[in-house]
From TrEMBL:
InterPro entries in the cross-refs: Aminoacid_DH-like_N_sf, NAD(P)-bd_dom_sf, THF_DH/CycHdrlase, THF_DH/CycHdrlase_cat_dom, THF_DH/CycHdrlase_CS, THF_DH/CycHdrlase_NAD-bd_dom
Family under the similarity heading: Belongs to the tetrahydrofolate dehydrogenase/cyclohydrolase family.
Protein name as annotated: Bifunctional protein FolD
Role this protein plays: Catalyzes the oxidation of 5,10-methylenetetrahydrofolate to 5,10-methenyltetrahydrofolate and then the hydrolysis of 5,10-methenyltetrahydrofolate to 10-formyltetrahydrofolate.
All copies of domain Tetrahydrofolate dehydrogenase/cyclohydrolase NAD(P)-binding, residue ranges: 138-289
The encoding gene: folD
Reaction(s) this enzyme catalyzes, per UniProt: (6R)-5,10-methylene-5,6,7,8-tetrahydrofolate + NADP(+) = (6R)-5,10-methenyltetrahydrofolate + NADPH; (6R)-5,10-methenyltetrahydrofolate + H2O = (6R)-10-formyltetrahydrofolate + H(+)
Keyword Transport among record annotations: no
Record's GO cellular component terms: cytosol
One MF term in the entry's GO annotations: methenyltetrahydrofolate cyclohydrolase activity
Keyword Hydrolase (UniProt): yes
GO biological process, one term: tetrahydrofolate interconversion
Species the sequence originates in: Halalkaliarchaeum desulfuricum
Length: 297
């Protein structure tokens, strides 16, 4: 029987544990604060940012939202980041990606105070992660680790294949899985657009993590029995319904489920964990900035 790994359930458990960490901070007079910045009129980005704000409010994190006209000069965004870097009520800053083409994404990430970089994308935080001393683990790969843990998947000695090499998911995921830690110690292969035979690699994997951004790229024929399948993709594809679209992962769920021992659904798998781990990083950022010891889930 294939286990369906429920990201909403795991996320809700972690959020309720975070509430007690927030309680400890409150006793010291600290309310964690997250600033979200949206410079886009993309409907999916708007949805994600509003989900982040709601999740903050749900567990007692103060949320500050800023919208910047996507046609405004890049300096408007940099001035906003300056302001947020200086604001003591803001412990975490998240600029929703992607930013418009005329804004240099790399420069934006480098401009955020690394102590407030709750996405874990600043080069200082990337370096710490690679060195095995992570300050903020990037939210999606961190969420994937938590899902594997909740499903009782021991990564030690396992062959993990990651399909996709993005800075947000593929690269940090590979780094986390090779660390000498409880949720690491795996042997990792990263497949990408120039990989010669991705299906051969995924068929030899114990764990397949699909983060390629192509709807239903991985199907059952690319898997062997008993593989653990984690689907990071959240793709909007045209559909004849009220919304005009439906959500589809990077994995073809029905055929993959036939082979998998455990699999994450879309929606309701990795997506909710991305938001939960953002809350986790924001609480951690507040504790570091105020030097308050807290227990984190
Ligand atoms: N600054 C950042 N930008 C982006 C990140 C990020 O981690 N930091 N990740 C992605 C998108 N993303 C977060 O922003 C994200 C994607 C999906 C979900 C989610 O919960 N999806 C739901 C379905 C939601 C829907 O109805 O559309 C699910 O899978 O169940 C949360 C966050 C790009 N940008």
């Amino acid at each position: 029987m294939t286990e369906i790994i429920d990201g909403n359930e795991v996320g809700d458990r972690i959020k309720s544990e975070l509430e007690s960490s927030i309680g400890t901070l409150e006793e010291e007079g600290v309310t964690p604060g997250l600033a979200t910045v949206l410079m886009s009129d993309d409907a999916a980005s708007e949805t994600y940012v509003s989900m982040k704000q709601k999740a903050c409010e749900q567990i007692g994190i103060e949320s500050f939202h800023h919208e910047i006209d996507p046609d405004a000069p890049a300096d408007v965004l940099f001035e906003k980041i300056d302001e947020l870097n200086e604001d003591p009520a803001v412990h975490g800053i998240l600029v929703q990606m992607p930013v418009p083409d005329h804004v240099d994404e790399r420069a934006v990430l480098e401009y955020i105070d690394p102590m407030k970089d709750v996405d874990g994308f600043h080069p200082e935080n990337v370096g710490k992660l690679v060195a095995g001393n992570a300050r903020f683990k990037p939210c999606t790969p961190f969420g994937v680790q938590k899902l594997l843990e909740s499903a009782g998947v021991d990564t030690e000695g396992k062959d993990a294949v990651i399909v996709g090499r993005s800075n947000i998911v593929g690269k940090p995921m590979a780094n986390l899985l090779i660390q000498k830690t409880k949720l690491g110690n795996a042997t990792v292969t990263v497949c990408h657009s120039r990989t010669k035979n991705t299906a051969e690699k995924t068929r030899n994997a114990d764990i397949v993590i699909a983060a390629v951004g192509v709807p239903e790229f991985v199907d059952g024929s690319m898997l062997t029995e008993d593989t653990v399948v984690i689907d990071v993709g959240v793709n909007r594809v045209d559909a004849d319904n009220e919304k005009g679209y439906e959500l589809v992962g990077d994995v073809e769920f029905d055929s993959a489920k036939e082979k998998a021992s455990a699999i994450t659904p879309v929606p309701g798998g990795v997506g909710p964990m991305t938001i939960t781990m953002l809350l986790y990083n924001t609480v951690k950022a507040a504790s570091l900035q105020h030097d308050v010891d807290i227990e984190l889930p």
